[in-house]
Amino acid sequence: MATFFEGESHTFSEYLLVPGYSSAENIPANVSLRTPLVRFKRGEEPALSLNIPMVSAIMQAVSGPKLAVALAQEGGLSFIYGSQSADDEAAMVREVKSYKAGFVVSDSTLTPDMTLGQVMEMKERTGHSTMPVTDDGTSHGHLVGIVTSRDYRPSRDDRAKLVSEFMTPREKMIVAEDGTSLKTANDIIWDNKLNQLPIVDADNRLVALVFRKDYDSHKSRPDELLDQHKRYLVGAGINTRDYAERVPKLVDAGADVLCIDSSEGFSEWQKRTLAWIRENYGDSVRVGAGNVVDAEGFRFLADCGADFVKVGIGGGSICITREQKGIGRGQASALIDVCRARDEYYEETGVYVPVCSDGGIVYDYHMTLALAMGADFLMLGRYFARFDESPTRRVNVNGSYMKEYWGEGSARARNWQRYDLGGSKKGLSFVEGVDSYVPYAGPLKENVDNSLLKVRSTMCNCGALDLAEFREKAKLTLVSATSLVEGGAHDVLLKDSSQQVNFRS
User: Fold this and answer.
1) Is 456 among the catalytic positions?
2) pLDDT tens profile 277-288
3) Quick one: 296 and 424 in the same domain?
4) What single DSSP character describes residue 75?
5) Cβ atoms 383, 361 nearer than 8 A
6) Active-site entry in 246, 286, 329, 418
7) Is residue 156 flagged as an active site residue?
8) Dist. CA 117–CA 105, nearest whole Å
9) Would you list the DSSP string of 22-60?
10) Which residue of the set 259, 319, 460, 462 is catalytic?
């Protein structure tokens, strides 16, 4: 006889938080969202923590280097997608790790023999008006000059004019040596009334650029997620097929944490992957595993040595696993079950294994509910796919700006390793994801700030100033279908900008 779980399988939308006592100290500015990323023993600090409880999904349409840097600047972490060659993934990781807080590696580098027309095309493509000139056009070539918007007049200058003719040459530039601190670089910028300062090594190779505006923005980012060398933290996805080849390359590239990307993690394949990593790297390489939807799955992966466990099957906005295979569980029910198992595991063993809620987040308040139910952090796909920094194209669909977004199980991605069940056959037998669009939402920072303000405000309503206290004090109630209607605007005529209204005295 099959095992039947008691009660219904619930989603986040079926729950509401009940307010608790709020003291005068319960204001959003006092709320800390810091949370552990990897397992730790009782009485010890985790080796890695997040400053905000957000990580980006291991997806082609979400987690590229640009988004990884932007999210780390806000205190979260990206997992570079693994559905590409190991070398290409390692190159992306290396690109993120090449950034130091306040130091920018140029992505708009010129050669002396390029033309003004090419400069203007690059400016249009990247949005950058300051472009260093190197001998080979690479971001770390020998510095020979720099071009800014003040060096040419698009309306008058010949587009065939060579960069060497209008650039500021190296001998007239003020530069700083590699190893210069950000504070010292900023002092040089201010003392010399510069907008940017190139950093070069002993061989006059370009290392990075420091911009006046970026220094100010760096100082305004107290939650930046940095390693001991002031580089941004970044994660990377792996699979259960080529881990012996992929993991060493990602570790060499500087990946701070790995995660097994799989639609279902309660398997011998994940056990083998975790065992190989522990045998070859011990605890020096941090790796999460999943996904699971019940206590049994969590305990299995925790015993296998997973540094965190992902929860969720079929809850993602572009995931159709439940439709195709009839497998999964409502995200709220799955999360509650797994988090209860995590707490029991901690009491029994003294080892805390963080839980990541993956999928099912439709509205900002769902983030708060997931954290109240016990999630240590959230993995988000659709949420980040909407932003400027995601790797997909912005397109106009029926007069509205959208961003492309597709699942790893879609025909477009064909990430068969994620859905692999072993055997000799390689390939995606049937799709478990769709190809779609999501509404364009602008820059990451503004949206993340807005979403987390809602989280902090709700935590204050519950009398909590950190996530551990929030989980302890949170009171949740199931709501009926009628209550869901009541929670939105109802029984009113909403104002519309196209409406014509006559006001009479």
Assistant:
1) no
2) 999 999 999 999
3) yes
4) T
5) yes
6) 418
7) no
8) 23
9) --TT--GGG----EE-S-EETTS--SSEESSSEEE-S-T
10) 319
